[in-house]
Amino acid sequence: MSTNFTILCPIDFSECSLNALEYASKLGEKYKAHLVIFHVRNHLEYKKIAPLDPEGNHQREYIEKKIKSLQDVVLQESFGNGLVSCEIAMADGPIVEETLAFAREVQASLIVVGAEGLSEIKDHLFGSRASSMVMKSEYDVLVVPKKAFFKRPRKLVYASDYIAEDALALQKIVEMANFYSSEVDVVHISSRHRVIDKALHASMVAEIKPQFHYPMMRFVLKSFRDDLALGLENYLHLAKGDILVCLAKKKNFFDQLFTNNLSRKMSYFISKPLWVVKTF
Questions:
Q1: Which residue from 10, 73, 188, 225 puts its CA 20 to 30 A from 80's CA?
Q2: pTM exceeds cut of 0.85
Q3: Which of 46, 140, 142, 33 is nearest to 85 (CA)?
Q4: What averages of pLDDT result for each successive group of 10 residues across the chain (280 residues)?
Q5: Mind listing the domains of the chain with CATH numbers?
């Protein structure tokens, strides 16, 4: 494991971003990571409501005080438990673009971002801002919904689509699972009962399973007649998965799962963190 593991957590002081910070700090303990708390200031909006402070000095002082208090809490709770450091940073401009630019600057290993959940659903599952960050990021992104409070993950569920990079993604997943002695379910959701799916599944298991000696990993093939994402949500619910993991390498599969106009009934699905693997 790299000693230069860096977690970037963008904060806007909302409840969901504070949940994300809790995940970031707890994961930072296990990865022995450097954590950066990052805030993007909306100076243009502030100027509209505070015309007597055109330079935004009061706004900056207020934000610096709030973000420093969060840094103090993280250091107090996590620094002695494995977290290597916790720094704070600020920027002005578009939130997604500034966050991703800063992620490149610090060579982030993981971006942990909060999302409102159902109230944010527009064209995407997790809302436009979080979805945009997932789509545009060069680095892994963990999306933490508003109702997802940190707990030890009992089970990680990886959505497989039988591609070569599955084994590389599973290396990352098993690393996290080892931290918490979590189960790992490698799941493929098929839209039909087909002999070819069974053959592909058997081939994947035969190829990947010998590469891992993790006793709590299992491979599952499920068929679901309707939307693939609904099938995956159904599996998450029945298997009591705690974190869903998806590899963004195969765009068509990723789009089917996360960028279609999905049912608002997927309350379980959007109450669990989504880890999108981007790099190896």
A1: 10
A2: yes
A3: 33
A4: 83 90 98 96 57 69 91 97 97 91 97 70 51 88 88 95 89 97 93 75 91 95 76 86 85 56 45 89
A5: 6-145 (3.40.50.620), 155-277 (3.40.50.620)
